[in-house]
Amino acid sequence: xxxxxxxxxxxxxxxxxxxxxxxxxxxxxxxxxxxxxxxxxxxxxxxxxxxxxxxxxxxxxxxxxxxxxxxxxxxxxxxxxxxxxxxxxxxxxxxxxxxxxxxxxxxxxxxxxxxxxxxxxxxxxxxxxxxxxxxxxxxxxxxxxxxxxxxxxxxxxxxxxxxxxxxxxxxxxxxxxxxxxxxxxxxxxxxxxxxxxxxxxxxxxxxxxxxxxxxxxxxxxxxxxxxxxxxxxxxxxxxxxxxxxxxxxxxxxxxxxxxxxxxxxxxxxxxxxxxxxxxxxxxxxxxxxxxxxxxxxxxxxxxxxxxxxxxxxxxxxxx
Length: 319
Prior knowledge:
By secondary structure, the protein is an alpha/beta fold. It has a domain at 8-171 and 215-240: 3-Layer(aba) Sandwich (Rossmann fold), CATH 3.40.50. Helices cover 41% and strands 16% of the residues. The chain has 10 helices and 13 strands. It has helices at residues 17-29, 48-58, 73-78, 80-100, 138-158, 184-198, 218-230, 248-259, 283-287, 296-310; strands at 8-12, 34-38, 62-65, 105-109, 162-167, 169-171, 202-206, 212-213, 215-217, 238-240, 246-247, 264-268, 277-278. Strands 2-1-3-4-5-10 form a 6-stranded parallel sheet, sandwiched between helices. Strands 11-8-13 form a 3-stranded mixed sheet. A two-stranded parallel sheet has the order 6-9. α5 links the parallel β4 (105-109) and β5 (162-167). α1 crosses α7 and α2 runs parallel beside α4. The radius of gyration is 20 Å and the shape is globular.
């Protein structure tokens, strides 16, 4: 599917984490194409009337629907119904508008947390419906997972051409560094940076450090979107990750090194480790001739350099 100057690319959640990586990729690849980024302050995507007004005004031909209502574990535990309700509406309202407005292509990413809690690593796409997600974020995870149902339903009834992507554990510039809502990498970066600045002799780390995870640089994820916009080889789900195994203890030591923290790492084994192994299968991605290749050290250095350069600028870093 070729894109030209007549196409209008609509990116929801354009100022979010992934959106901040994606917009420059689109601008570089499609310099003659009209790219429209919208965020929560522009339209209320929870309201179908505002979604309809947005589509009527902007008239997109291709939609990349990144907008989501997300938060950390504690927020998910306190407000599971909000996470379910809002993400379900965000998904359904945009899918429905894309179908009725005859959008040429819809790209919809969902999180790897939607896989069953009992999924066996490496987690390939065939395991998606084998069980229920982890309970602490099930409201969010199941609402996002309904995008798979919507994609098939709207394809069958309306012919909507869509693809569902499943990015792994993303990290990179523009992430959320709030201590309550951040994921492991931005949380550790902030903790070690502040410990260095304050001269703290030690930093407490949760658990044993034994769990393994699969991390993917957000810039790598963003660079793969054009392939799925231009090709109909897959409707999804397709895992977008590195497929590389990293022990949490190794990750922690590497972040301490790259932030320049030289104090002691103290593992608090009274805290839970969580799921011991969570690695995403990327055979389907590789079969398409695609991969996420940024080495963890390189991606972390870019992320930390950006954080340090921006942490003291008001509003530049989500703290």
